[in-house]
Amino acid sequence: MEAFVELLCPECTKHWEATPAALPDTDESFDCPDCGERRPLSEFARTTRDLEVLREAPS
Ligand SMILES: [Zn+2]
Question: Ligand 1 centroid to 31 CA: how many Å?
Fold first, then answer.
């Protein structure tokens, strides 16, 4: 079963789910699909658990 992580944009508060395999490393920049805000992916993780799942996912 593939894990999902919850993402939350710190700029526009868009909230969505994604699979870690479709995302870059947590220290790489990521663009919000709604407002285009660019930050390290780690800042889009909604909770500490989501951040941990992202960090543990192979990429
Ligand atoms: Zn946004």
Answer: 8
> What is the spatial distance between Cα 47 and Cα 35, in angstroms, rounded to a whole number?
21
Report field, pTM of the whole predicted structure over 0.85: yes
Residue-range domain boundaries for the chain: 5-56
Per-residue pLDDT of the chain in tens (59 residues, 90 and over written 9): 578 999 999 999 999 999 999 999 999 999 999 999 999 999 999 999 999 999 998 75
Dist. CA 8 → ligand 1 center (Å): 8
How far is ligand 1, taken at its centre, from the CA of residue 11, in Å?
5
